[in-house]
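Reference record
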Amino acid sequence: MQVLQVQLEVGPDPAEVGRARRWARSRLVGSGIGDDEPLAETLILLISELVTNAVVHTGCPAVLRMLFGGAGASGAAGTVRVEVADASDCPPLQRHAEGEDTGGRGLELVDGLADRWGWLPEGAGKQIWCEVDRSGPVRTADVPTVVIQGGEACEPPACLFTDNLA
């Protein structure tokens, strides 16, 4: 099966997040995912959260990649994979925001919306990735998920990711 990969270099400016969303939306439409489909909205939210984390918490440029058409970790055809690579070697931290906190919800959203997510070292930095199966139902933030860590599946919160993104 052929995989289409597209990528965008993102500068270390928070304004770049909006540019990344617009770019991603146009690439989703080009891959056959309608702009008004729930899947598109889910992917744009995931992209927004991952790019925001990379830009805000590292202060360095990042690379956003989207891969279409290949099989995901579960072997499901039609998986869309989103990867954001940055120059920080600090692993991601899944925080738990309280009440009126203005931050700390990004990776909780990723955990709730993606079918799978994780991170791995890339060069001197890291790559945070998530996958959404095109053929499956679009997830909501209330649905628990299985997290893949080091190739092993486990139920949250037993294998929460930790780092210094705070």
